[in-house]
Amino acid sequence: MTKPDYELEKAAIAQGYKRIAGVDEVGRGPLAGPVVAAAVILNADDIPEGLNDSKKLTAKRRAGLDAEIRARAEFAIAEASVAEIDEHNILRASHLAMERAVAALDPPPDYLLIDGNLIPHGLTIPSQAVVKGDAHSVSIAAASIIAKNWRDQVMVDLAQQHPGYGWETNAGYPSKQHREALQNLGVTPHHRRSFKPVHNILYQE
Predict the structure, then answer these.
(1) How far apart are alpha carbons 60 and 129 in whole angstroms?
(2) What is this structure's pTM?
């Protein structure tokens, strides 16, 4: 199993860039909650050990790395709301969150490594799209960890307001418990109405 490394960042540094940010988003698949993006600029001389795609880490390991990244790197987190997801679509909302996270870094980065195969059209900084970026770049992996931890906590908080959907464990993804609760308890203001399982419940014939 290959681990992410600092090679893409080194290549950008060799081209003369100095502030390279990894950008990733979390939460495209859930039926509820915002989509969250993070942008992280690592210190080349102080990279936390064990950075990896957030999906490959245990919750405990993610929490530990989250604290290390926050202590040793520059980072910003941003969201796009359920209303924005429904108004635009999940891809555009994901890109909005990415654009906001990048804009919140101060001073701004001069180069971006972006997870995925598309560069959000609101970004004017030189950028490279990296498919499965969190498996290749430690900066993108760090962004995935920060974004996932943040989003998971958002869903834990929302679960206290709307018990029964299991958001504290499923983070809004369409688990069996979540789908059954949708049928039995109905749709909350935090559900994405443009997503088919939610839409179908709202507009049952």
Answers:
(1) 29
(2) 0.96
Strands 35-41, 20-26: parallel, antiparallel or unpaired by DSSP? Answer: antiparallel
- Residue 53 tokens read as 């795609």
Taking the C-alpha atoms of residue 99 and residue 71, their distance in angstroms, rounded to an integer, is 23
Q: What is the distance between the alpha carbons of residues 31 and 52, in angstroms, rounded to a whole number?
A: 25
Sort strands 35-41 and 74-80 into parallel, antiparallel or unpaired: antiparallel
List per-residue pLDDT tens for the chain, 205 residues long.
579 999 999 999 999 999 999 999 999 999 999 999 999 999 999 999 999 989 899 999 999 999 999 999 999 999 999 999 999 999 999 999 999 999 999 999 999 999 999 999 999 999 999 999 999 999 999 999 999 999 999 999 999 999 999 999 999 999 999 999 999 999 999 999 999 999 998 887 4
DSSP 110-124: SEEEEESS---TT--
Three-state DSSP at 25 gives strand
Task: Count CB atoms within 10 A of the CB of residue 5.
Answer: 14
Contacts of 136 (CB under 8 A, 6+ apart): 2, 4, 5, 8, 130
